Fold this protein.
Amino acid sequence: MLTVHGVGKRYGNARVLEGLDLEFGKGVYGLLAPNGAGKTTLLKLLAGLLPPTEGEILYEGQPLAVLDERYRLILGYLPQRFGYYPNDTPLKYMQYLAAIKGMDRRKALSRSEELLDLVALGEVKHKKMKTFSGGMIQRVGIAQALLNDPRVLILDEPTAGLDPKERARFRSLLTQLGRQRTVILSTHVVSDVESAANEIVMLQGGKLWVKDHPEAICKLLAGRVYEAQLTDTEIEDFRTRYVLLGERSEPGGWKLRFAVEDGTVPADSWQGVEPGLEDVFLYVYRDRQPGNVPSGTIWGDEVRL
Amino acid sequence: MNPSGSAWRLNLRLVGLEFQKLFMLKRLGLTVFILLCGGLWLYPFQVLYPNSQFPDYETTIAAGMKAKYGTLIDDREWEAFKQDRVKKVAEADAYIREDPLFASANLDSYERYVRRAQMPNGGTQPLDAHIRAGTKKELFAKLHAEEEWIKRYEDDYRWTVGPGTIWMNEAEKQRLQEIEARDGVSVLPQRQIYHYASSGILYRLAMTAMLTTVLLVMHIHIGDRRAGLDELQRTSRMGKNRLLWIKTTAALLTGTLVSAVLLVILLIAYRFSEAWSLMGADISGRFGGFFMYDLTFLQYILLTYSAVFGLSWIAALLTAFYSAIAPNMQVLVMAIILTLFIFFKEDWILTRLLNMLLYSGISLLEPTLTVAGLLLLGVFLISVAGKWRTWRLHR
Ligand SMILES: Nc1ncnc2c1ncn2[C@@H]1O[C@H](COP(=O)(O)OP(=O)(O)OP(=O)(O)O)[C@@H](O)[C@H]1O
Ligand SMILES: [Mg+2]
């Protein structure tokens, strides 16, 4: 059990996180927030890479700083940005990381090979990593985080650069991993966590906004999301009055998806729809938030912020 | 957790991995290139291989005596040595008697020629030149060297050491008596000590070792940082602090290996020179010099060479420190150049330290303290680098 107690983090004078109280047991936790919201910062705090400015983080009741090596022993971490020596092969790279994780030589080799197979890189394990694509590198990153079979697995945007097939494979891996351990991952790709995560954590203004099951979060917008067929002239009016969640060109005009204030009476032509996690994301982080929804997001495709 | 045995094995393996990362052929190539650009690196080795242009009869004589009488020559053996010369002198006599130029100078024996040559206005210069141009040039040169050799032996040792005696303290005077009281005289010629000490072999080897070590070690931390391994290392079980010391060990190992390789090169160079047979001879004596310690020539070389190991370790530690804290490559290179300058600058650290050792009539305490002090400084700086990183994170 990973417990976050009244944690805040400042970089110099810039406050990034404030008064966070969180608990992570077994399962998959998706950290969902827009760019610059402090996801990486929170994950670094959880990985013991950064000390919190205030509050404390405990694992099984003991502060991370006290556990130190004992915490790193059970930790797997994928940084948002990480690197490698271009001439290293993934196998050599994994073996080096296994060594600094304290694994013995034989185990390091077998585990490295096993994990490279798992992320579908078994065929190229002897190729130099400088010849790899971004997605392949990212998969090596995911594999290395699993080397020591960690109890706590922290993944900072693990799906960045993965193609849809690899994304799907990763999602099923997540579900599997979450059964036995604590998996915390950040993303701004809603579909990554919508189905695979047991709980979603959303931050707003450096504070915790919500931490709940995906369905429960979707319910927050229940009865307030609609679709409507509109002409060009009507669209501008809608833009200012409602929160736009997506638009799609259709013969004879536009199909708009939008959310309304609580208590708004829908017009007859509106069609009520089930809100998805993406709708909530767009609604919560709409333009009044800094760094927010670009208008013109194409609904139906994947939304990337 | 781990029983301590396998913990050790793990540490060793990690040191090995870091060490492997440092040894890149490309960087060794760069080192060789820089050394070649530095020019004439091998120059001092020439003194080990005399040729007809710069002959070294002294060493030849010494090697000959060593073969016959061993490294310590007593009075009886000296007499035998002088007897051996008789035949050669007779050959020189015959040459002189046959030559009209000597007759016109009124000389009929080698002995008279030598005596004349020693007179202030002996006027033997044309004769000397005549001999040098003639067929017996080598015979005369050898005889001459042997005369110097004998003269040196027969002169009072204190006189040879010279007026230096009056500046000697009690310990040194006692040491002088000790050397004088030996059953014989060490066969090692002064020239060999001089070659080793003054020709710059040791300086150049030390500089080479430091430069090579620096070039190999400089990437040790900054390389990983630039590659982007920092966070992976910091969240690994070893953690950054243990890796810091593992890498420090690897850096020291690199310095050790570089120094060892150069030592082997030095010894191989000696192995194929005439001086090799004199390695077992004592450095102190009428021919060698005056040293406070009983050392054979080989021991003297190894002792003074130990400074190269020390300097390489210092270079390794300082470089590792810079590599750990430098914000970028430019700063790192500047810091390294500045440090090497401070070490290499005439009369600052390197030459001063090596001179203290090479002419160790003086005590060994000072150079030992110097090296130990610099090593401690290096270790201290590394631990500062570790603390400094943590401190920055907490800001
Ligand atoms: N080392 C740092 N020094 C100062 N400010 C920082 C530092 N790291 C992050 N920040 C700031 O903290 C805020 C949160 O950054 P963080 O990287 O945690 O966001 P994020 O949610 O991971 O964003 P992204 O989705 O782009 O990865 C940003 O405003 C960023 O500018
Ligand atoms: Mg981030």
In short: The beta strands of chain B are 72-73, 185-186. Chain B has two domains: 3-50+192-394, 75-182.
